[in-house]
Amino acid sequence: MKSGLIPAGCLLAAIGAVSPVTAADLTLSCGAVGAELQLCQAGVKRWEAQTGHSVEVVSTPNSATERLSLYQQILNARSSDIDVFQIDVVWPGMLAPHLIDLNEHLPDGATDDFFEAIVDNNTVDGRLVAMPWFTDAGVLYYRSDLLDKYDLEVPTTWEGLTEAAQTVQAGEREAGRSDFWGYVFQGRAYEGLTVNALEWIASYPDGGTIVDDDGDITVNNAQAVEALSLAAGWIDNISPRGVLNYTEEEARGVFQSGNALFMRNWPYAWDLVQSEQSGIRDRVEVAPLPAGGEDGQSAGVLGGWNLAVSRYSDHPDMAADLVAFLTSFDEQKRRAIEGSYNPTLPALYQDDEVLAAVPFFGTLYDTFTSAVPRPAAVTGDNYPRVSNAFFNTVHEVLSGNVSAEQGLEQLDRELSRLKRRRW
């Protein structure tokens, strides 16, 4: 058993280990959203067969907010129980002090073929603290058969989505489908709501990105009020009240069961809604997220995950080799084809086999390469507080407890206090 300041068994139990702690050479944390865990395990088995080493794979909470808290607990304890961490695109700056510089363990030029922006995101004070594994941007899933049935076009604005959702929902309910809804998304008070709400706000002209690149708070403006007011009107109208507790998988469950017209989610859901087990297979298509009004623009928020090696690992070279394998061209191609996970290698977006499996990787390429970043770089270690304040405010607005105007005014004051004290 690995040693550490926190007993390994306790740590692994806390993150939902898929099997008891063993004397594996390495331990890797992986997400478990959709088919993510199975794809991770398959990649690990390929590396084990190639190297003769063994890896214990443990799953982590689906909520990014809960996962970050757990990672910080493990790393602050300087525990060696986890060697390789799957980290969110907004975490490198926060976790960098606990991560090795992969430049010292990988060959020269190891990042040459990756998206430069993601490599830059993962480089902190000249140190490469994580390798890009898969990237993401929010997209709109829709039932093409139902839009055809009601002679509707794919909406290009949030207002258009609202109208189309109302039309189809009313028609389907009149036909006896009382549990049918127009739109599902991630409305729980967690990082996923920060992403959804930022997509709404940033899609409006001058809606802002909560905090801009200069560190100025931009969230309290008329366009943000309009965006959140529109979204609040969805609850109990085109979206079930239960959406206020949805993460990615709850939204996918409703949509994949055939009970929603539109869904906001990440690209991973494509492989699942098109699987043989899906009741809506071949009746789904994907489009960019709508714009905020006729003068707005689609604003899918940048997501994605990376692989990093703990400074407290007993085997940093071996762990870095595992990271290099899992982020390699062949592995990323396999994950794209089998699970519709967006590669971090531009060449794979021109690969015929990848495009045959996930056609929208080609048609929505610009969506993925121009995604809107969250304000993690400018707020640094305080990003979790900024995001927490934002998603809690949005959740209160969606719940009907405060108006958008009241919520954003309160948020502005809270962020201003945080900026004065800590930025």
UniProtKB/TrEMBL annotation:
Keyword field contains Transit peptide: no
Pfam families cross-referenced by the UniProt entry: SBP_bac_1
Signal peptide: 1-23
Annotated keywords: Signal, Transport
Gene3D superfamilies on file: Periplasmic binding protein-like II (3.40.190.10)
GO cellular component, one term: periplasmic space
Name listed for the protein in its UniProt record: Carbohydrate ABC transporter substrate-binding protein (CUT1 family)
